[in-house]
Amino acid sequence: MSTNPRPVAVVATSLTPAYTAFEGPEAALVMTCVNELLESTGLRREELEFTIAGSCDYLGGTPFSFVMNLEGVGAWPPVYESHVEMDGAWALSEAWLRLQCGDVDTALVVGSGRASSGRPREVFALQTDPYTMAPLGADPVSLAGLQARALLDSGKATEADFAAAAARALPATSGVSIEELLKADYWCDPLRAHDVAAPADGAAALILVAGDRARELPGEPVWLTGMDHRIESHHLGLRDLTDSPSARLAAKGAGAHDGPVDIAELMVVHSPEETILRTALGLGGETVINPSGGPLAGNPVMATGLARVVEVVRRIAAGEARRGLAHASSGPCLQQNLVAVLEGEH
Amino acid sequence: MPQPGTGLPPMRTVLEYPYTRTTGPVMGAFLTGIRDGRLLGGRIGERVVCPPLEYEPGTGAPAGLDLVDLGPGGTVSSWTWVREPTATHPFRHPFAFALIVPDGASSGFPHVVDAGSPERMSTGMRVTARFKEQRRGSITDLWFVPEEDGARAAPPVEGGDPVTLAEQPVSLTYVEPYHPHRVRFLNGLLEGVITGQRSPVTGKVYVPGRGYDHLERTLMTEEHDVAVSGRGSVSSFTEITPVQYHGQKETEPYIRASILLDGSDSPITGVDIRTIPLSEFRVGLRLRAVWRPAGERDVSAFDNRSTGGWEGVIERWEPTGEPDADSRALEEHAF
Amino acid sequence: MARPCAVVGIGQTDYRRRLEVSLEGLVRWAALEALEDAGLTFADIDAVVIGKAPDLLEGVMMPELSLADALGAVGKPIHRVHTAGSVGAATAISGVTMVESGRYDRVLVVCYEKQSEGNATWALSGGKSGGQGAGGTFAPWIRSYIRRSGAPEHIGWQVAVKDRRNALRNPHAHLRIPDISVEKVKESPMLWEPLHFLESCPSSDGAAAVVLASEDVARKGPAKPAWVVAHAKRSEYASFPGRDPVRPRAGVECAEALYRKAGVTDPLRQIDCAELYVPFSWYEPMWLEGHLLAAPGEGWKLTDSGATELGGSFPVNPSGGVLSSNPIGASGLVRCLEAARQVRGTAGEHQVEGAKVALGHAYGGAAQYFAMWLVSSELQPAFA
């Protein structure tokens, strides 16, 4: 495997609000993002040589949801395009690899979802083993509860740690203390409602440009210096739920520790995951975690991971950080993890 | 419950299908064991895993079938107390999901514990399997209780052939408000008006509007709404010979058509035709809508996509008797 | 620049109803066969890509999660492609990209569908009554093609017979109709005018897999590689004013991009055979024209002449094609791997003699998603 990837930069980002229930089609969310990207870069749709989106049929309950979304992505004249049935962060991974090949210099990456029409706990139970888990309705919140309990039992975290992660997602003005959060009733013990990100509707998108072309466009390019993603066993009994070896491998593969990590946006959908990810990703006190509030503050399902990348890029472009890490996950109990490493121009 | 200000209830979709899963030899043996009141694991190298696997965990290398009886007792290695069960959980009352290591196994698997209250749950606690009286060989044929509630032998079931098929009924309910442009379109239909949207860029009229012009990448709003004619030309059709599947209500062949309404640039689709013989139906045929009486119009079969539902508001489409439209020119509207 | 990529291992299940295996067993069958062909084990694989049609077909959401262990993916990257009917070819191309990027040396690509677990018409209609099925969508365009090209009605029957005869030479094929004939096809029930039952694809179970590798790995492998000399994808909207759904521009541009990349200037002559995604008989002449293998209006003449038969000058679907086996999400990968088998010379009874360059193709949605690859027995075939 080569160790020196072709320089590729994020040159523009777009992120819709995380809507409790968006009044309109998912394609309109996507179109809004894509139009914003084109406007901010001055690029024409046809100039984006490769397009890839991430979305999910089951989330909104319609097969081929990406076919409708294509109307927002833009596909006339015809486009060179693909789709992953995964969070948009994995679409970014394929786009980054595509640009590594050298014959394509620009890419549009989209993630989108409408979680508001279904009951996500019931829907996402269908992610689990179809013979032994899905029939029990094994839902992501309950399974996160198992992970949380394992963390408490191991002594690696306390309920106050969970609350601290949840508190970070609250607006600074809320004035809610960790102590107050700990007084709330349990929902899936030891999880409380505030420990669980509420699924939302939304979209995220960005434009990737390879090499010097990135510098010719307006704005500050933010370089995507490395990316990797890894999966671990689906069988929870075979895993140490208090650790995330797949996140550790992804961080290594992405070169996360080839330099200091100023900020990290982690896809913490259940607050205990922050403890696990901090350790597995090797993030110490020098790294600001989830300055955006993270998914607990806004969880546009299928765009949540790509939104982490957008949040890191924006902070680097604004000069708030020099180097950052974006993380995305998929599957129960952090089964699959992705890491992207981003660096500013200077 | 109608949406505020629209008079329309939100649309509700139930995705329901009874999936039938072939089990293969290993999962089949596990489920056969459950049917027979036994909990089986698989020996793979030094480990005994439950449920048994077709392969070595970690490497994916093939594993032989070496079954081991486990339980019925076991130890909880982690748990969570589910205070608000979902519709797909095995219990309607609060219960625990737990990782349970059955006696004789080297690792645990997730299942449910019916303990009554979270105070009775703890890591390391002992549980025992309870089997339903009626069992067909499903993971939901058993559950666990605290061991202090007493071990109970599995009620015998009539022996039978090995389980080779696992049924998994899946039913998911989706409820969402109609999109704003759909609300205006549907309210128009209730009043006997077909509403489209005129692109501010090209002037092309899309019926129904989608809230955007995808060719020009422009969002469209109420100001772009236009009423279009209830007359048009068949742009495309197909005769459907219904195949039977779960939820299928159609039994007889019928025509499904797309109609380019006069003054519009995109056809309405999913129009079912049941009163014009196939032999007389053709691309270019001129039709007009015969509306149902105002009080009898029902838009509940429309969803948030573009296709179908017309039969709720339009009783039938009848030939106008005008000369046919040019079928070649309609080809671009063949959808 | 992109590194060369080769197919070094191929595996596939039989495509009948697979009632004796689990989902895991099904995908492992194909994966293990591909690994064995490549002389590798799961441990040698750097990354896994899976593809299939909508999750609603089996009722398993994001199956890369529950299949990760069975595919030996633990500790590795795995991702899932979904691009409607073109997905099998799109997944193959996604895997090729991974090798070409220089980041991965051995990538396992697995596609599958187990239609017997659910019902495709139910799933494609989103669980609603009155689903029109894929044939209902394509039939009007087929009628337009017939009108536009002046093709005689027997062309569709002829393709149906040819592909089923080819299937008799392919032990993996689902439909095996030894006494297939034009009479039998035209007497079979009319499903969607003008498509008869025997002009339509079956509902199949099955999995297909390929191992893709970098040049170094390919040259060291035990089996002859099939080099991926070019690949292309194009998509367009399902409907819009001005669309030509019979000869979609995305299909034309996809073919143009593919041939340009490979240096092909006269595809009908320079390519030896093709596995085209033909789920309904008429799509053979339609894609011959739609992918620049024949001029508009000439595709049916090529079919009529017998050129597309096994033994003809440009065999199409020597494996029996989608008309004989349709594990939906895998069907595109089957086209791609059958093209690879041809140029490796390992296609058995349906081998096209001397095939050096072959086309694998898939399309999907409302004939709006296209994915194609061109494979060759040579790394850099010279096209004269």
CATH fold label of the domain at 8-119 and 199-216 in chain A: Peroxisomal Thiolase, Chain A, domain 1
Oligomer class: heterotrimer
Could you list the spans of chain A in which at least 5 consecutive residues all have pLDDT below 50? none
Strand order of the largest sheet of chain A: 3-2-4-8-1-9-14-13-10-11
* Average pLDDT reading of chain A: 96
Instruction: Give the helices and strands of chain A as they follow along the chain.
Output: EHEHHEHEHHHHEEEEHEHEHEEHEE
Low-confidence stretches of chain C: none
Distance between the termini of chain A: 28 Å
Greatest contact between two chains: A-B, 63 and 64 residues
Amount of beta strand of chain A: 15-25%
Range of helix content of chain C: 25-40%
InterPro entries (chain C): Thiolase (IPR002155), Thiolase-like (IPR016039), Thiolase_C_2 (IPR055140)
Pfam families (chain C): Thiolase_C_1 (PF22691)
Domain Thiolase C-terminal (chain C): 246-369
Protein name (chain C): Thiolase domain-containing protein
Task: Walk me through the structure.
The complex is a heterotrimer of chains A (346), B (335) and C (384). Chain A is an alpha/beta fold and 346 residues long. Chain A contains twelve helices and 14 strands. Chain A has a domain at 8-119 and 199-216: Peroxisomal Thiolase, Chain A, domain 1 (3-Layer(aba) Sandwich). Chain A has helices at 26-41, 57-60, 65-73, 88-100, 120-124, 140-154, 159-168, 178-182, 213-216, 245-253, 273-280, 304-317, and strands spanning 8-15, 50-54, 81-84, 106-113, 186-189, 191-192, 199-200, 202-210, 222-231, 263-265, 288-289, 299-300, 323-330, 336-343. Chain A has a ten-stranded mixed beta sheet, sandwiched between helices. In chain A, strands 5-6 form a two-stranded antiparallel ribbon. In chain A, strands 7-12 form a two-stranded parallel ribbon. In chain A, strand 10, helix 11 (273-280) and strand 11 form a beta-alpha-beta unit. In chain A, helix 1 runs parallel beside helix 3 (65-73). The longest helix of chain A is centred in the N-terminal third of the chain and has 16 residues, at 26-41. Chain A starts with 7 loop residues before the first strand and ends with a strand. The model of chain A has no long low-confidence stretch (mean pLDDT 96). Chain B folds into two domains: 24-157, no CATH class; 176-333, no CATH class. In chain B, the strands form six sheets. Chain B has a five-stranded antiparallel beta sheet with strand order 7-6-5-8-9, with no helix packed on it. Chain B is elongated. The mean pLDDT of chain B is 93. Chain C has a nine-stranded mixed beta sheet with strand order 3-2-4-7-1-8-11-10-9. In chain C, strands 5-6 form a two-stranded antiparallel sheet. In chain C, helix 2 (87-100) crosses helix 13 (328-344). The longest helix of chain C is centred in the middle third of the chain and has 17 residues, at 133-149. Chain C is globular. Chains in contact: A-B, A-C, B-C. At the A-B interface, helix 1, helix 3, helix 5, helix 6 and strand 5 of A face strand 1, helix 1, strand 5, strand 6 and strand 7 of B.
